[in-house]
Amino acid sequence: MLGYFALLILFLLFFSFSFYFGMREWLRPQDAAPVPVDVEYVRAENYFGVSFRRNMREWLKTARALPPEEPRDGSVRAVLERPNGERILCLAGGCFGGRGEREELIYSERDLCLAEGAVFHKEIYSLGKVETGAGAQLQAVAADGEISLGVDNAVSRWVDARHKILLRRGTVVRSRVSSMESIELERQVSAQSLFAPLIFTADYRPVPSSPASGKPEERPPAELSVQAGEVSPAYLNGIPCSRLAEETWLVRGNLELPAGTCVDTNLVVKGTLCSGPHCCFSADVKAGGIELGPSNRIVGNLVSGSVLEIGQDSLVGESIIAEGDILLRAGVRVGGGGRQAVVSAGRDVRMEANVAVCGKIAAGGMVITI
């Protein structure tokens, strides 16, 4: 009997011990204040650049000046040291770097030119513009002016500018590229995500206005209306389909639209949607896979459960989302008309020449120009 009583006491001790830390925190709280969270991290596309600029201004106020240990480069105005031992090179601007590696943070008061093959393991901030030579390797770079990264540059983290950004052939950015003006991408450039009012690839030719932001061009009424005695629109004749809502049709298999077809409702296709040239969609489109022909016009959003391909010279007014790869053929335009669109792929986004996106491009893999 005594043994059972001891086991019961032991059980109660172990059971109550599981509540000990919770009761202690409740009676004497040590985390009364919530953990601070900067919500701008998810709201601001240029968060990294803005945050780094703010931090750099604070570091310049608190860092102490160091005496020169060796003859300085003519562009180095001062060397500062933060309380944690990290050093900041304050530059007057001009050309800097070489084939050696730099471990300091870089702050430039004017336009900055980085030499070919230069390697920087810390962030760079310039009050002017930044231009790099071929083969440069950077951690991250922010500029209040323009940024032009040379051929075959590699950036481990992010790039942010208040004016335009140019990424030359072969450049790779492992994280985000953001600009308040525009981003130009030469061929064979890759980045994880890009954000700017205008993102465009090589040989970009602006057009006066984007029809994708307005209504699709007019087609003969017979293509838009329901024919006598039919329940479904003409383009769904003989295809298993049903009406999900007043403005939405569901196709239970694959759908192939002939050239010139106009769709005036939301369209959901469980299989693959293929369209011929000069088709127009006045609302949203969702399908298991999407392959649009050349010169298509889409006013709404495009959503694909796998791959998504937009034909040459097509216009999309809203966003493009795909769980697989996205391919934007030459001449494609996305967004515009004062609205920002999103191109988002679960895998890669590939863009040919003369493609323009107004807003954001993001990929689970990489955004690649071909």
Explained architecture:
With 370 residues, the chain is mainly beta. The chain has two domains: 132 residues, no CATH class; 159 residues, no CATH class. Helices cover 12% and strands 39% of the residues. It has four helices and 36 strands. The longest helix is centred in the N-terminal third of the chain and has 16 residues. The chain is flat. About 6% of the residues have low confidence.
Gross morphology: flat
What's the Cα radius of gyration? 28 Å
Largest sheet: 8 strands, parallel, barrel
Identify the strand order in the major beta sheet: 26-28-31-34-36-35-32-29
Short description:
The chain has 370 residues and is mainly beta.
List its traits.
mainly beta, 2 domains, two-stranded parallel ribbon, 4 helices, 36 strands, 39% strand
Question: What secondary-structure arrangement, pairings included, does this model have?
Answer:
Layout: H1 2-17, H2 20-27, H3 40-43, H4 47-62, E1 64-65, E2 76-81, E3 87-91, E4 94-96, E5 101-102, E6 105-108, E7 112-114, E8 119-120, E9 124-126, E10 130-132, E11 137-138, E12 141-143, E13 147-149, E14 154-155, E15 159-161, E16 165-167, E17 172-179, E18 183-185, E19 190-201, E20 241-245, E21 248-251, E22 255-257, E23 262-263, E24 266-275, E25 280-281, E26 285-291, E27 297-298, E28 302-304, E29 308-310, E30 315-316, E31 320-322, E32 326-328, E33 333-334, E34 341-345, E35 349-351, E36 356-369
Parallel strand pairs: 3-6, 4-7, 5-8, 6-9, 7-10, 9-12, 10-13, 11-14, 12-15, 13-16, 14-17, 15-17, 16-18, 17-19, 18-19, 21-24, 22-24, 23-25, 24-26, 25-27, 26-28, 26-29, 27-30, 28-31, 29-32, 30-33, 31-34, 32-35, 33-36, 34-36, 35-36
Antiparallel strand pairs: 1-2, 2-3, 19-36, 20-21
